[in-house]
Amino acid sequence: MKGQRFFALLLVLNIAAALAYASRNVFMPGMLVAVGLVGLFGRWHWEMRNSRRVILFLLVTLAFAAKYRLTTPVEEMRMERFFGHPQWTPQTEWLLGLIVVHFFLKPRKAILNAIPFAGLLAVFTTGLIYERYEAGVMFRIFAISYIGLMIFYYNSLREPMGTVSAGDFGRRQAVLLLLLSIALAGGWLIGTRWTSNQLEVESLLNRLEAPNLIQRMFQEERGTVEFSSEVRLESIKRIHQRGGKKVALHVFSKSTPGYLRAAAFETFENSRWNTDAEVQILEPAETAVEHLELPYDSAVFVPYAADSRQWQTLDIWPSTRLSAGMLAPLGTAVFQAPVESILHYENDAYDSPDLYSGSVMLS
Predict the structure, then answer these.
(1) Which of 82, 254, 259, 330 ranks highest by number of CB atoms within 10 Å?
(2) Does 300 lie in the same domain as 187?
(3) 209 vs 70, more confident
(4) Rounded to 5 degrees, what angle do the CA atoms 83, 89, 91 make?
(5) Each residue of 303-341: pLDDT tens digit?
């Protein structure tokens, strides 16, 4: 039994290493491995009936659910956030915890056979955390090594059935080597296909974000686009996928603007882009801008001192709700908008707490 527990621990170690690499966090995977070592080399191996085992697994599930509840912000516990890539981490930790619990129980053959399949599910959920192609290569390495460990694990479960001739032993070893080669090649092929179809998988997960079809239709009909001080990578992709060919805004200009900025982010931390840019509050200008005729009666803001006799103007009509975001070309010298103040970030992004749905901006 020690050999079986040893290979089971190696399976847990493999998944824990993959999880730590994917989530960039070694605390929880390392703690699970440490608990597994205690169960492997300790003397606490209890015999339990199936009913009590079920109760124990439910208690472990409740413990991981409580840990998820206490460590996850409330706004990220909605259904659409639960299926995001970083949120697959608690599912993998939970599966690892269920496997580690077996190290403290007296083994039963059916459970021993089921342990690697629970690990396979953990490998799958770990793969959902990887978002970059270069990390996909590491995931394939972890997955293939897990398949190899599974073969050795099941080999340790075999029971001797008598003497075997040298010829039979050689043939069995050849068959085992062939199966291992097929498993390794298949694992690499599956990993390659997984990477090449990553966008399709993410699209499927995005379609699962809405709790029901009615809400999904309502969200698509509303067509909301929001900007804030932090943003997830998948939220940008979601805007493109849900928006389709819908018009986000109309821009009237004699020349093509080329680039409009609504927000800018400099740092990436905890799966989010953030900005630490300093902000300046702009108040309405008290004097008119020379050589510039403005078509509206809204307040005028001047972030940069500029004097031009050939102004290039953009008339921007948003058809969606831009939450605290103002689109403008870089280096915009004059704003006209129905707001009381404008926030000017040092990265040349603008927003206003007074901006409302469909408001017209002139820059």
Answers:
(1) 82
(2) no
(3) 70
(4) 75
(5) 877 666 567 777 777 654 444 467 778 877 787 777 788
